[in-house]
Amino acid sequence: xxSLPELTPNWLDTRWLRxxxxxxxxxxxxxxxxxxxxxxxxxxxxxxxPQLGINLPALSVRRFWTxxxxxxxxxxxxxxxxxxxGVSDKxxxxxxxxxxxxxxxxxxxxxxxxxxxxxxKAPKVYLSxxxxxxxxxxxxxxxxxxxxxxxxxxxxxxxxxxxxRRSGARRDEAFFSGVHTGAxxxxxxxxxxxxxxxxxxxxxxxxxxxxxxxxxxxxxxxQLYVICHGEGTPxxxxxxxxxxxxGRINAALG
Length: 254
Description:
Layout lengths: L11 H7 L3 H4 L4 H22 L6 H13 L3 E2 L2 H8 L3 H13 L3 E6 L13 E4 L2 H7 L5 H6 L3 H17 L6 E4 L7 E7 L2 E7 L9 H9 L4 E6 L6 E4 L2 E5 L3 H4 L2
Parallel strand pairs: 2-4, 6-7, 7-9
Antiparallel strand pairs: 1-3, 2-3, 4-5, 5-6, 8-9
Helix pairs in contact: 1-7, 5-6
């Protein structure tokens, strides 16, 4: 897949909409990109999974994958998904394990502390590729993406994935903070004895919020980066808080 720092700024929205698979991203037009992604989903379900020895009804996994797209960026709730699909919690857990094992989804674990506050216990679940996410959600073009309820979650998932990939963080080094009473954070990387936070905003001109200040203090962050849409060079928002355009993610990773 193409990652963001390999692309020029004017490719950013194309990369977001089409995803990172080269044949989807570099297709001659949007229609060709959609056709390739549709074929990829079918091939994954009907050929690739059976070749891996995973013999499950393609229609059932497709329904689960599509439903999971609507939960993109939310805390995992196996019971809710199981009820919607009419299967057991164990079955949806197996489906998730399969999609994660084939790199179609990933789980971001919650950061646990001894704050004495109510913390989110379940992981967040993301689809790995934004282009596949958009096809499963029926999003066809940039206008539809901007109007879709999952627009913000889609952007956040793309950025979280890119940051983790570029940072080289292992599964046990990347978290989100979900304290119900504050200090919420999209991504926390704990590596080499340092805690660095990332908040994802679709706005090109983000502002410091009380939640950001709380997260920086409570989580004892060395630095908090606000990854935003747009171009340009990073700029300071407040002490220890810096805005970084998406195309300059490497600047936040040292």
